[in-house]
Amino acid sequence: MTNFLKLEQIPRHHRDEVAELAMRYGVPRHHHAVLADGAFDPLTKNDRIGEVGMVVRRRDGGILVARKTYYPPAVFRLLTGGVAPAERIIAALEREVAEETSLTVQISRFLSVITYEAPYPTPRRFVSYVFLLDEVGGTLQVADPEEQVAEMRTVLPAELPLLAARLRQLPDCDDPAINGNWSSWGQFRAVMHEEVSALLEAA
Question: Mean pLDDT throughout 196-201?
């Protein structure tokens, strides 16, 4: 379900900040996704209540994507980073961009707020705050080795549905690397790619 954002659907302590960010960078579209299974990272992590989605647009117009060392072959995805329970969204965004890219960027647009609901095995909620970021300087490199990034590349916006399709086709198997099932994780991760693709196409 996609519509314009209703602030009551996001964590209470983020509502004022989301309203401020919407005034500065545009009102984000809201997408709510119901997941069949929420038993995987990052939904099971206690150190975050959500994440920032970083749609980094490089100077050639390509969108930055990455794969981690433990991902299945050929799986790349948009960059994300956790938002701690008491952390401001903008602080998490600035930190994660620095850790994962070392680039200087400017916020072009507040694209989307994606809320997730997973009733199984126990009810879970999660939120992704997604921003379009334009590269303005720096040298691309991962500053935090704990991110376990194996490779980065750029894709055209039109390729995002292909990335989403690969995520939705991941095998139904458990892996301790994500504390859960790859198929369930892939269904979750595909949502942001589909949402960003639709928004960039409409721009």
Answer: 94
Identify the three-state secondary structure at position 115.
strand
Tokens of residue 75, six digits: 């799986």
Higher per-residue confidence, 8 vs 45: 45
- Is the pLDDT score of 92 beyond 60? yes
Q: HEC states along the chain?
A: CEEECCHHHCCHHHHHHHHHHHHHHCCCEEEEEECCCCCCCCCCCCCCCEEEEEEEECCCCCEEEEEECCCCCCCCEEEEEEECCCCCHHHHHHHHHHHHHCEEEEEEEEEEEEEEEECCCCCEEEEEEEEEEEEEEECCCCCCHHHCEEEEEEECHHHHHHHHHHHHCCCCCEECCCCEEHHHHHHHHHHHHHHHHHHHHHC
How confident is residue 10, by pLDDT bands cut at 50, 70 and 90?
Answer: confident
Beta bridge partners of 106: 134
Please say whether the beta carbons of 151 and 66 come within 8 A: yes
Query: Whole-structure pTM over 0.90, yes or no?
Result: yes
Percentage of residues of the chain with pLDDT beyond 70: 98
